[in-house]
Write a structure and sequence with these properties.
It holds the Pfam family Helicase_C. Its EC number is 3.6.4.-. One of its GO terms (molecular function) is DNA binding. The chain is α/β, with parallel strands linked by helices. It folds into six domains: about 10-105, SH3 type barrels (Roll); about 120-135 and about 745-915, no CATH class; about 155-330 and about 390-395, 3-Layer(aba) Sandwich (Rossmann fold); about 340-385, no CATH class; about 410-415 and about 435-475 and about 490-630, P-loop containing nucleotide triphosphate hydrolases (Rossmann fold); about 660-725, 2-Layer Sandwich (Dihydrodipicolinate Reductase, domain 2). It is about 40% helix and about 20% strand. The protein contains 31 helices and 31 strands. The strands form six sheets. Strands 12-13-11-14-15-10-16 form a seven-stranded parallel β-sheet, sandwiched between helices. Strand 6 (about 60-65) and strand 7 (about 70-80) form a beta hairpin. Helix 19 (about 570-580) runs parallel beside helix 22 (about 610-630) and helix 30 packs antiparallel against helix 31. The longest helix is centred in the C-terminal third of the chain and has 45 residues, at about 830-875. The two termini are about 45 Å apart.
Length: about 900
């Protein structure tokens, strides 16, 4: 049994990029090491940890943490720790405990395995080489972080994800119109931030009805495993802060807004990014911000990154819009009146953009714009410098396009019973029991409508849980219609089951009867019929209802069915929404401000004390004027900056190039063959995976005992949720690749071959080197200095034959040798092998200097240009934060230092002996 002691220094067998580890805990069967070079801790099973104790010998040279290089003169061991007697260049003696050794150290284990007769199959050696090559390519892929999500390749979503996801600590307001996929955009940003190491701890706050949808979407689309925090989870802390027990936390906002103790715990935990969905619900007045707003403001101040999601950025009024921007950047948006004045100036920049695009470039340009610049450069600079484009992204349905038409089907019904009263907008709310169902004309109409639509699915929305529950009981038990209820009186799991039954295309419910909570966040675009049993006064709420079907992914026309009782308040509300706002045929961004302006007149009209026709005429005129205002100024700038289509198309093409090559499936099948994972053909681009009898779960994670069906095709993955979508960024692939390089698999092999023209007994030594640059993951050094695999093939005379005999050709020629023979060969040729290893290392070392220089030049150019760009931009656009620029300066300094100390790591070695 290996004995571990606190302070000992160990290295991973193959993952040299971790550097030198320190034992920080050893309890029972587990040992934990800290790796200072990369800022990580890892826990291993002590009995089979892939670790080797670092022991210097007399005559070796060591390096201390403070940079001194000393020669070892003697080694002693006291209480499990090594102490080195050393001498410096002046001959002065020093004692160095092992805990003071430099963390940046390399141990070349392939040589040790080769020398000690531990060999792998040639297939495993080839897999290791292929893994290095693929990882190197992925590290340099321009679409890195965007390959993995199970989403459509939509330009507006990918542009936002790329531009925001690559920032340090992004702080933005995602405000696309209803149905354009803000949750998808947020998930893409988080996926990219987490994959590249820019973030590791995330807190997501959502309305309680959307908890499970977020949980499922993050897992199904992005393979992000969030922990769901409810009241029970918060109460089970046992004295420790529950928010510090998980890296990715999903929680209902209301749960925290109403619990000061939970708020304190959430604020005490460190977060890299905080996400707040439906941020327009936060209550704010200039002199009286609500408790929920104050809490989110405190979170926003304590967290580097912040994503706010809302579909109504300005419809709730300039004050509310300003309040949300103040959460993003309180230093920039600190004065409401200053903000109003700035907004007034956006219109001139919008008009200038339109003139340039139309070929009417003014003879003189505003100060700060280069007269000699091209139109394209001018447009880019205007978008960068003016408006709220760096902190607010808003795509409109008009700019994105591709949405189906809306068809309105209004049904005027004769009023009867209590509903006949002229002012009765929601008569069912006053009923003491469900007797109203028998007399209400809309209920009979709904029954007949669903029967006529059968088997087409229909989403039915009404305003209250009581109404939804009673309608569902009536339709299911009395009318024999397969339907489910979805309302706040049900548990989250019950709601999810109802939504899943409705989504089942073969044996699911025909109708889902929702209360108002079905209007936000839930996506039912597989249905084309929406029944509005009643109508809300608030146009934004009505737009949310319609947006459950009329959204990205909808393939057919959306049919909106509205029953109303003729001659009552229901008819007057319908006419105001339809004839005044025209909200049923198209999205109405001006709906909320117009509603606020006409609220009192609308109430009087609904009560029957005001003229409906006059109100509709005035509303129609006000709506047209409001829509014109919203289309000018800031909205115009935002529309351009929210999706720069040429850049988005380049991202999409890079993703498609990665997917269409077929490399992933070929590599993955080889991976399965080597790791004893059974795989069989399912259909084109799809496999069925099952654990093999001798599968090593340490090498192949995320495979259930009963197997899994996977697809490499994006279209198939979008249509078949039961299949896993395998991309180069799926955990099953990335963790398997990391496991291969963090273990000894395939790093030493020995074989023979017959090669015409080459003398019998000739040695060929094939070595694969990669660059080892220990640095924190958040530095993203791989952008400039990737693994950069270097293959060297030397013969008995130390000639490099790597160009003459390719790796693939050698794989075809080499033959296996039984283990006993192989051990005999290596014992006999030990001296010659050591000489060839030294020669190969010398040849590879020549490339390292060039690699370092190229990487330093790339880092200096990229980061230097970005620093210069942001410094210049900050002088004209205060939305560029100081901490963004400071972080880039830190990245440049640390990147250049890490590149300068980069060395080579021998990943794999294969000895080949030429036979007769």
């Amino acid at each position: 049994m290996v004995e571990f002691a606190l302070g000992q220094r160990w290295v991973s067998h193959a993952d040299a990029q971790l550097g030198l580890g320190i034992v920080v805990a050893s309890e029972g069967p587990r040992v934990t090491l800290s790796f200072p070079a990369v800022g990580e801790e890892r826990t291993y099973a002590a009995g089979r940890a892939p670790l080797t104790r670092l022991r210097f010998k007399t005559g070796d040279r060591l390096r201390t943490a403070d940079g001194r290089e000393l020669d070892v003169t003697a080694v002693t061991e006291r209480e499990g720790l090594l102490f080195y007697r050393t001498a410096d260049a002046a001959g002065e003696a020093h004692e160095v405990p092992e805990i003071e050794l430099d963390a940046f150290v390399q141990l070349t284990t392939p040589q040790q395995r080769l020398r000690n007769g531990h060999f792998d199959r040639h297939e495993a050696f080839a897999l290791r080489v292929a893994t290095c090559l693929q990882l190197d390519r992925l590290q340099r892929d321009p679409a890195r972080g965007l390959l993995g999500p199970r989403t459509q390749l939509l330009p507006h979503q990918l542009y936002i994800a790329a531009s925001v996801g690559r920032r340090h600590a992004p702080r933005v307001l995602l405000a696309d119109e209803v149905g354009l996929g803000k949750t998808i955009e947020a998930g893409m940003i988080l996926h990219q931030q987490l994959l590249t190491g820019r973030a590791s701890r995330v807190l997501v706050l959502v309305p309680e009805p959307l908890l499970h949808q977020w949980l499922v979407e993050m897992l199904r689309r992005f393979n992000l495993h969030f922990a769901l925090f409810d009241a029970e989870r918060l109460a089970a802390g046992d004295g420790e802060n529950p928010f510090e027990t998980e890296q990715l936390v999903l929680c209902a906002g209301d749960l925290l807004y109403e619990d000061p103790e939970a708020q304190a715990d959430a604020l005490a935990a460190p977060w890299d990014i905080v996400v707040v969905d439906e941020a327009h619900h936060l209550h704010w007045q200039p002199d009286a911000p609500g408790q929920d707003y104050r809490f989110v403001s405190a979170l926003a101040s304590a967290s580097p990154g912040l994503l706010l999601l809302t579909a109504t950025p300005e419809q709730l009024g300039v004050e509310s819009h300003f309040a949300r921007l103040a959460l993003i950047d309180p230093a920039r948006f600190h004065d409401l009146e200053v903000f109003r004045a700035e907004e007034a100036g956006y219109r001139q920049w919008s008009e200038l953009l339109e003139a340039i695009e139309a070929g009417r470039r003014p003879a003189s340009l505003p100060p700060g714009l280069d007269e000699g610049a091209s139109d394209a450069v001018l447009i880019g600079r205007i978008l960068d410098r003016h408006g709220t484009g760096r902190v607010l992204y808003r795509n409109t349905r008009a700019s994105v396009g591709g949405f189906p038409a809306r068809q309105l089907h209004a049904s005027a019904l004769p009023a009867a019973g209590p509903a006949a009263e002229p002012g009765a907008l929601y008569p069912e709310r006053h009923a003491r029991d469900d007797a109203w169902l028998a007399a209400e004309p809309r209920v009979a109409w709904l029954r007949d409508k669903l029967r006529a639509l059968r088997p087409q699915k229909a989403l039915v929305i009404c305003s209250t849980a009581r109404c939804a529950e009673q309608l569902e009981h009536y339709l299911h038990l009395r009318a024999g219609i397969r339907c489910a209820a979805f309302h706040e009186g049900l548990s989250i799991i019950e709601r999810d089951r109802a939504a899943a039954w409705f989504a089942d295309a073969e044996s699911g419910a025909q109708a889902l009867v929702c209360s108002e909570i079905g209007s936000e966040g839930r996506n039912f675009q597989f249905a084309q019929h929406l029944v509005l049993f009643d109508l809300p006064r608030n146009p934004d709420l009505l737009e949310q209802r319609i947006g459950r079907l009329d959204r990205i992914g909808q393939t057919g026309e959306v049919h909106i069915h509205v029953p109303y009782l003729a001659g009552t308040a229901q008819e007057r509300l319908f006419r105001w929404l339809h004839e005044g706002l025209d909200i049923f045929r198209q999205n109405c961004p001006a709906g909320r401000p117009v509603f606020d302006a006409f609220r009192e007149q609308l109430e009087a009209t609904l009560e029957g004390t005001a003229d409906s026709d006059r109100l509709i005429a005035e509303t129609r005129e006000a709506t047209a004027a409001a829509n014109r205002r919203l289309a000018e100024g800031r909205d115009r700038l935002l529309e351009r900056n929210a999706c720069r289509r040429p850049e988005a198309e380049r991202i999409i093409e890079a993703i498609r190039d990665s997917e269409r090559s077929g490399e992933l499936q070929a590599y993955f099948e080889t991976l399965c063959d080597n790791l004893n994972v059974e795989h069989e053909y399912h259909s084109e681009g799809c496999l069925v995976l099952r654990p093999g009898e001798h599968m090593d779960t340490a090498h192949f994670p995320a495979l259930p005992e009963d197997g899994r069906t996977v697809t490499f095709d994006r279209a198939t993955a979008l249509a078949r949720e039961d299949m896993a979508f395998l991309s180069w960024e799926h955990p099953m692939v990335t963790e398997a690749m990391e496991a291969i390089l963090s273990t000894e698999l395939g790093n030493a092999a020995l074989g023979t071959l017959k090669l015409r023209g080459v003398a019998t007994g000739t040695l060929l030594l094939e070595c694969l080197y990669t660059v080892n640059a220990s640095a924190p993951k958040s530095l993203q050094l791989q952008r400039f200095l990737s693994l950069s695999p270097q293959r060297v093939l030397v013969d008995s005379r130390d000639r490099d034959l790597s160009q003459a005999v390719s790796h693939e050709r050698l794989n075809q020629l080499v033959r296996r040798v039984d283990h006993a023979t192989a051990v005999g060969i290596i014992r006999q040729l030990q001296g010659a092998v050591d000489e060839r290893l030294a020669a190969a290392a010398g040849l590879a070392e020549k490339h390292l200097t060039t690699l370092r220089e190229d990487a330093a030049r790339r880092a200096e150019n990229y980061l230097g240009e970005e620093i210069t760009r942001l410094e210049s931009l900050q002088r004209v656009n205060p939305q560029v934060r100081d901490d963004e620029i400071e972080h880039l300066r830190w990245q440049r300094e640390e990147s250049l230092a890490a590149i300068a100390r980069a060395d080579l790591h021998l990943q794999a070695v294969r000895l080949v002996v030429v036979t007769a």
